[in-house]
TrEMBL record:
<keyword id="KW-0812">Transmembrane</keyword>
<feature type="compositionally biased region" description="Low complexity">
    <location>
        <begin position="539"/>
        <end position="563"/>
    </location>
</feature>
<dbReference type="InterPro" id="IPR007816">
    <property type="entry name" value="ResB-like_domain"/>
</dbReference>
<dbReference type="Pfam" id="PF05140">
    <property type="entry name" value="ResB"/>
</dbReference>
<dbReference type="InterPro" id="IPR023494">
    <property type="entry name" value="Cyt_c_bgen_Ccs1/CcsB/ResB"/>
</dbReference>
<keyword id="KW-0201">Cytochrome c-type biogenesis</keyword>
<feature type="transmembrane region" description="Helical">
    <location>
        <begin position="52"/>
        <end position="70"/>
    </location>
</feature>
<protein>
    <submittedName>
        <fullName>Cytochrome c biogenesis protein ResB</fullName>
    </submittedName>
</protein>
<keyword id="KW-0472">Membrane</keyword>
<feature type="region of interest" description="Disordered">
    <location>
        <begin position="1"/>
        <end position="27"/>
    </location>
</feature>
<feature type="transmembrane region" description="Helical">
    <location>
        <begin position="474"/>
        <end position="495"/>
    </location>
</feature>
<feature type="domain" description="ResB-like">
    <location>
        <begin position="50"/>
        <end position="529"/>
    </location>
</feature>
<feature type="transmembrane region" description="Helical">
    <location>
        <begin position="204"/>
        <end position="223"/>
    </location>
</feature>
<feature type="region of interest" description="Disordered">
    <location>
        <begin position="537"/>
        <end position="586"/>
    </location>
</feature>
<keyword id="KW-1133">Transmembrane helix</keyword>
<feature type="compositionally biased region" description="Polar residues">
    <location>
        <begin position="569"/>
        <end position="578"/>
    </location>
</feature>
<feature type="transmembrane region" description="Helical">
    <location>
        <begin position="106"/>
        <end position="129"/>
    </location>
</feature>
Amino acid sequence: MGTASTRDRRVAPEARDLRQAGKSGKAGASLPKLGVRGTLLFLWRQLTSMQTALFLLLLLAIAAVPGSLYPQRNVDASKTEQYISEHGSWAKFLDTLGFFDVFSSVWFSAIYLLLFVSLVGCVIPRLGVHLRQIRSRPPRTPSRLRRFAGFTRVELPGGDVEAVAARAAKTLKRSRYRTDVLEEKGGARSVTSERGYLRETGNLLFHVALLGVLVGVAAGGLFQYRGQITVVEGEGFSNSLAEYDSFEQGAWYDSSKLPSFRFTLDDFRAEYDTSSNEHRFGQPKKFEADVTVDDPDKSGEYSKTLRVNQPLHVQGTTMYLLGNGYAPEVTVKDPDGNVVAEGPIITIPSGDTGYTSQLVIKAPDAQPKQMAVVGFFLPTGVIDEKGPHSEFPGLVNPQLALTVYNGDLGLDDGVPKNAYQVDVSSLTPVADSDGNQSLVSLTPGESQTLADGSSISFDGVKRYAAFDIKRDPFQVFTLVMALSAVLGLVLSLFVPRRRVWVRAVPSAHGVVLEVAGLARSDDDRLVEDVRALAERLADSASTAADPSPSDDTSADSPSSDSPRPAPQTPETDSSQSKPSHEGPLQ
């Protein structure tokens, strides 16, 4: 230990002044101001750091959660509006924040763009560094290999430095190492080698592929269209805007270039569980839709069966089987005997396991007053103290339970109305002869005439299917990028990056061989592989020194199958024929 004055002389004058200024309470120095350019550079470096990119990726995943919790307008606009009307002011507040249009909201788009910029700023510099590393030579051999993992020192009697180095380089090349042979002082030779660049390649591939996914999703949103349709058995669909129930298109898609194809829903089949298990009874087992497609690109019609997760691909579009239900055939006549509604009426399942479905018929042309028929279609109908409901989703006992109203339906106001909803609060129910509200219960083939002269008949039941039609020209590109990201992640996790050095130093009795390694990532096998390499080189050197031993070799002489004994040195015992192993210094 030196004195205080000695320690002060060892400290730089500037540091001593700062320390004295700190003791006296005076400011010894002030940090320079960043300025506008420095502040922007600092913010850019923070944005393009890997930590920020990971944080934004996590934030994007969290921001996407509301898209799966709340109905989205681009998927089902009617269901979204119904949800908002049922949940009042809270749902309106969420709608203001964009929770029902999550993936097109301002806050989700902001996170998306920040993540994209962060990845670009992070990947491009790393890509340049990686390319320079691949093209450069392996790093020079350290002067002291004892400090590294698996250090092994072997004395090879009668060996040749250049031959040992050449064999080491050849062996490492066979193990997919990039090698370089260097000349050192005193006639020594060293082999420096490195492998595992595929790890960083996989890391960069993951990030570039993630960028590709972001580009594919964004471009797909700009150039895609998506629409929903409902088709009754026996009816068809032509791919035009007028035929869609709802339609959304990307900002850069031209709707006048819709693919020209048509199809007809020939048959829809559904199977439900009929086992005695109360938890499984009535659960759907299979949905199938047989369609006949008219595709001009294929010069003719062909048949196709759509199932859940087995869509129809036609002219670059994908048509998914989205839902299904019942369409009872109903005929409604006004008091004057005019037919004001006729044909299959699409019903909306209420959500119970029995497929109890809501039915709404609007007859604005009825005379002398407009009519509305509201009620339920019951596939397996039961009307009891619980009210009308269905006990099984299959057509076992189909029934209609209806009420009829008269009044102004509000369709002449010019305001669009939901075709599957009607406000009966302003309408007058049709009464029976006793003055009570008429309740109509019908089975297929039945009809009933009300007290005011109007009539309703139940003619039969058909099924309908709901389809989701989507065109995304970047779907395949996005899939390839996603798979590439998985591949890059696997490479970055399981490919070890390591450096291995071999040094051959001439000695009075032959060659001293030193081998060591350095792991650039988690590598549990490095020490074992380094020592195995040293043993291989020692064995090959011994074999080269004595290639053809005589048959009468003395038992005391070393065989050609084992390395020759090394001369006694401070590091090696002369009685040992195997390499000595020393771990890295602490």
